[in-house]
Amino acid sequence: MQNLIVSASKRPCIDETEFEIVERKGVGHPDTLCDTIAEKISRAYSQYCQRQYGVILRHMVDKIALSGGTTKVTFGGGKMLKPVKLFLNCRFTRTYENRPVPYVSIVREVVEAHLAETIPLFARKRWLRIIDNTHFSPGPGVVYEADGTSRNDRRFFFDVPTEEFAIFHDNGLRANDTSTTVSYSPLSSTERVVLFVERTLNSPGFKLNHPYVGTDIKVMARRQRDRVALTLCVPFIASQTRDARDYERKLKLLKAAVNELTSAQFKRYRFSLFLNTRDDPTRSDYYLTLTGSAIESGDEGVVGRGNRANGVIPFTRHMSMEACCGKNPVYHVGKIYTAIGSLISQEIYEKLGLETYVYLTSQMGRHLSDPWAVLIEVSSRRISRADRMHIAEIADRHLADTRPTTRMIIDGELLLY
């Protein structure tokens, strides 16, 4: 590959560094809700188009936003005063072969199913409003002559596929943007800690024993050598919390459970835990919610503001700023290069045992299999010629044909949230 650079890094592996800061926004966090909903909408829309038309039509679902509602919460219960709004700031192909594509129905089905899964106490039929801000502009590049015609007949809402790419629309598989993605493998121990804590607290088994715990859980980890301090923001569910004394009792119970879980799972580290640090009983300020998510009470969510594609926000690492969720899985480089970079870094680590960073840079209009730059950095003072050739082969193979990666995304085999 002409634009490939493989570099040996003198930096220590992430677990050997002096310090590390990592965050994880849980499944009920408004930003995570937006990311996951956007990605699930893109997947459902792609699957529908495949079934109905044999093609994946153009769409962009990476700008949706949630605007929080208003609740009145008391110990033991509460009520919703103002609904949550989902702003569908998207572009969809709305017609194909003179038939309408039911994108609104697809969106509603996905949103309601996901909210039922992540915030089961949220009465989505009554407490959710979907605001359709969809537009159908083709984007820049269509220039008209003086007589009102254009030699560029590209229209956003209608593309005729070629036989060669029967399941995709005919975009020539070229990059839609000039962008850079960053992927790395493996996860650090601290990253695995925050994932483990959030996923455990949001697991069905934990909820069975701790039904007062909501899903809008945020975990912030600060590691200094072998000491890990965790700050957790955990919403309590009002209907499962009788009064302030019950809240305090369950807070201690939860803290003990998290301490026991982390110490047993990660014996290398010494843990300290801080839980719901803003609580102030003198002002009746508790993290108490009606549904288990702050989206009920004014908090907002936007695609791309939360976890990266590997599920964490790694502040002390090189990381991608791309909002990959909801982007078209065929040719939107913010998504497809994030996914391919992850596959490349993972395979290099698994086969060579080297911590790896992959930077993929596209040029708008350039073929997806020919990035403008492919930079691969591995944690090794020296790289043998054989290892360089092996790394190049891995990168070449994953980039030579992007369609298998697209298939993995559409089929849900490769998750980016």
Can you give a write-up of this model?
The protein is an alpha+beta fold and 417 residues long. It folds into 3 domains: 122 residues, GMP Synthetase, Chain A, domain 3; 103 residues, GMP Synthetase, Chain A, domain 3 (2-Layer Sandwich), CATH 3.30.300; 114 residues, GMP Synthetase, Chain A, domain 3 (2-Layer Sandwich). Helices cover 31% and strands 22% of the residues. The chain has 9 helices and 21 strands. The strands form 7 sheets. It has a 5-stranded mixed sheet with strand order 16-14-13-2-19, covered by helices on one side. Helix 1 packs across helix 2 and helix 7 runs antiparallel to helix 8. The longest helix has 24 residues. The radius of gyration is 23 Å and the shape is flat. It starts with a strand and ends in a 7-residue tail after the last helix. About 4% of the residues have low confidence.
